[in-house]
From TrEMBL:
<dbReference type="InterPro" id="IPR042208">
    <property type="entry name" value="D-ser_dehydrat-like_sf"/>
</dbReference>
<keyword id="KW-0663">Pyridoxal phosphate</keyword>
<dbReference type="GO" id="GO:0008721">
    <property type="term" value="F:D-serine ammonia-lyase activity"/>
</dbReference>
<protein>
    <recommendedName>
        <fullName>3-hydroxy-D-aspartate aldolase</fullName>
        <ecNumber>4.1.3.41</ecNumber>
    </recommendedName>
</protein>
<dbReference type="GO" id="GO:0030170">
    <property type="term" value="F:pyridoxal phosphate binding"/>
</dbReference>
<dbReference type="InterPro" id="IPR001608">
    <property type="entry name" value="Ala_racemase_N"/>
</dbReference>
<dbReference type="Pfam" id="PF01168">
    <property type="entry name" value="Ala_racemase_N"/>
</dbReference>
<dbReference type="GO" id="GO:0036088">
    <property type="term" value="P:D-serine catabolic process"/>
</dbReference>
<feature type="domain" description="D-serine dehydratase-like">
    <location>
        <begin position="282"/>
        <end position="368"/>
    </location>
</feature>
<dbReference type="GO" id="GO:0016833">
    <property type="term" value="F:oxo-acid-lyase activity"/>
</dbReference>
<dbReference type="Pfam" id="PF14031">
    <property type="entry name" value="D-ser_dehydrat"/>
</dbReference>
<dbReference type="InterPro" id="IPR029066">
    <property type="entry name" value="PLP-binding_barrel"/>
</dbReference>
<dbReference type="InterPro" id="IPR026956">
    <property type="entry name" value="D-ser_dehydrat-like_dom"/>
</dbReference>
<keyword id="KW-0456">Lyase</keyword>
<dbReference type="InterPro" id="IPR051466">
    <property type="entry name" value="D-amino_acid_metab_enzyme"/>
</dbReference>
<comment type="similarity">
    <text>Belongs to the DSD1 family.</text>
</comment>
Length: 385
C-alpha cells in the first residue's frame, strides 16, 4: 500500500520531529530559541553570584522538568519554586530534589500530599504560611508522615494578595510555627508580585524599597525573640536586582527571565535603557498565515487558545511592519499594510504573558540554527491543584 503524506508525517501528539526545519513545525507551536534561552540563564546566574544571593527560579513560568534541571545544572539554581502542590509533585517525579511551594496551601488533602512528597529520599520540601489555622494541619500531616517541613512565614509587603501583616503579626505566626511538632521555621517570604510590572524604574524602586523596609523590620523583630530567619526570599524578574542588592534578601525567585514576554519588554531597566537584566525574548508562539482575505490584513492560526493576552496582545518578533491587532478563539488578525504576507508564511509572536501561555501547550519545540534540536514536555501543564 502506498503511504499518504499523513502516514509518514510526525505523530499527532507532537508538533515537530528532531531535525525538522522551522518551516516543518506544525502551528501554532510554542518554540524556544535555545541560544537566547541559554544566554538568559547564564545572565541570571551571573547576576545572582555578583549580588551574593541564592537563586531559586520559579517554575510556574515554564512548568517543565527539562527547564528546571537545566537551571539547576547550568544556571546556578539551588532549587525550584512552585505555586501548586501538583507542580511540585510533577517536578520531583522528574528529578528535582529541592522545591519551595511559594504559596499558601490550606486544604488538608493538599497538605497531606505535600508532607507525603517530603518522604521521598533526598527531597527537600518547604512551604509558605500566612495563617495560624494552617500550622496545626501542616504539623499533623508532617508528624503522620514522619517528616519535618520547612516553613516560611509570608508577609504582605505591598501586593495586597497573600501574606500576614509584617512586624509583630508575622512574629507571632513564626512563634506558632516554631513551636509546632515536625515544622521548622525557616524564614520570610516577601514577594511583591505587582511591582514586577511597574514600567517606570523610579516607581518600581520606590515600591520595592517599601517592601524591603517591611521585610527588614520583620527580620529584626524575629531576631529579638530568638528566631533567626535563615532565608529571606522573594523578588521576581522585574525587581531581582533591587532585592538582591538590598543586603537583606539572601535568595531571589525570578521566573520569566528565561523566556521574557511582550509585557516585560515594557519594564524599563533601573539604570540605562533596555530590559531589566538585559534578558532577551526566547519564547515564541510560532504561527502560520492561513488566510489573506483582503489588502492590508492577514489571518494567522494563533488565537485566544494559543496565547494569553491578559497582559496585552503579542508582538510580531522582528517585524516592525506588522501588528497583531486582535484575536478570537482560533484566529489572530494581523495588520499587513505593505501586503508582504502570503499563505503559510511563518511568524514568531512574543506572547503578552509567558506564564499562562506555557500552560496552554504540551510541548516546547526547542530550535537552534533553524532546526528543531529538542522537544521538551510541559511537564506540569494543567497542574493547578
Amino acid at each position: 500500500m502506498t503511504s499518504s503524506p499523513d502516514d509518514t508525517d510526525i505523530g499527532y501528539d507532537v508538533p515537530a520531529a528532531i531535525g525538522d526545519k522551522i518551516a516543518d513545525i506544525q502551528t501554532p507551536a510554542l518554540i524556544i530559541d535555545l541560544d537566547a534561552f541559554e544566554r538568559n540563564v547564564a545572565r541570571m546566574k551571573d547576576h545572582a553570584e555578583a549580588m551574593g544571593v541564592r537563586l531559586r527560579p520559579h517554575a510556574k513560568t515554564h512548568k517543565s522538568t527539562d527547564v528546571a534541571l537545566y537551571q539547576i545544572a547550568n544556571g546556578g539554581a539551588v532549587g525550584i519554586c512552585c505555586q501548586k502542590v501538583s507542580e511540585a509533585e510533577a517536578l520531583v517525579r522528574g528529578g528535582v530534589t529541592d522545591v519551595l511551594v511559594a504559596n499558601e496551601v490550606a486544604d488538608p488533602k493538599k497538605i497531606n500530599r505535600l508532607a507525603r512528597l517530603a518522604r521521598s529520599a533526598h527531597v527537600s520540601v518547604s512551604v509558605c504560611v500566612d495563617d495560624p489555622a494552617v500550622v496545626a494541619t501542616l504539623s499533623s500531616a508532617a508528624t503522620r508522615h514522619g517528616v519535618t517541613l520547612d516553613v516560611l512565614v509570608e508577609i504582605d509587603c505591598g501586593a495586597r494578595r497573600c501574606g500576614v501583616l509584617p512586624g509583630e503579626p508575622a512574629v507571632e505566626l513564626a512563634k506558632t510555627v516554631a513551636a509546632a511538632p515536625n515544622l521548622a521555621f525557616t524564614g520570610i517570604q516577601a514577594y511583591h508580585g505587582s511591582a514586577q510590572h511597574i514600567y517606570d524604574p523610579v516607581e518600581r524602586r520606590a515600591a520595592i524599597d517599601k517592601a524591603i523596609g517591611m521585610a527588614r523590620e520583620t527580620a529584626e523583630l524575629l531576631r529579638d525573640v530568638g528566631l533567626e530567619p535563615k532565608i529571606i526570599t522573594g523578588a521576581g524578574t522585574g525587581t531581582h536586582n533591587l532585592e538582591g542588592a538590598s543586603g537583606l534578601y539572601n535568595e531571589i525567585q525570578p521566573g520569566s527571565y528565561i523566556f521574557m514576554d511582550a509585557d516585560y519588554a515594557r519594564v524599563r531597566a533601573t539604570e540605562g535603557n533596555g530590559t531589566v537584566g538585559g534578558f532577551e525574548h526566547a519564547l515564541f508562539v510560532l504561527t502560520s498565515i492561513m488566510s489573506k482575505p483582503a489588502s492590508g490584513r492577514a489571518i494567522c492560526d494563533a488565537g485566544l487558545k494559543a496565547h494569553s493576552i491578559d497582559s496585552g496582545l503579542p508582538m510580531v518578533f522582528e517585524r516592525p511592519d506588522l501588528k497583531f491587532v486582535s484575536a478570537s478563539d482560533e484566529h489572530g488578525k494581523i495588520e499587513d499594510p505593505q501586503d508582504t504576507l502570503k499563505l503559510n508564511d511563518r511568524l514568531r509572536l512574543v506572547p503578552g504573558h509567558c506564564d499562562p501561555t506555557c500552560n496552554l501547550y504540551d510541548w516546547y519545540v526547542c530550535v537552534r540554527n533553524g532546526r528543531v534540536e529538542a522537544l521538551w514536555p510541559v511537564t506540569a501543564r494543567g497542574k493547578l491543584y
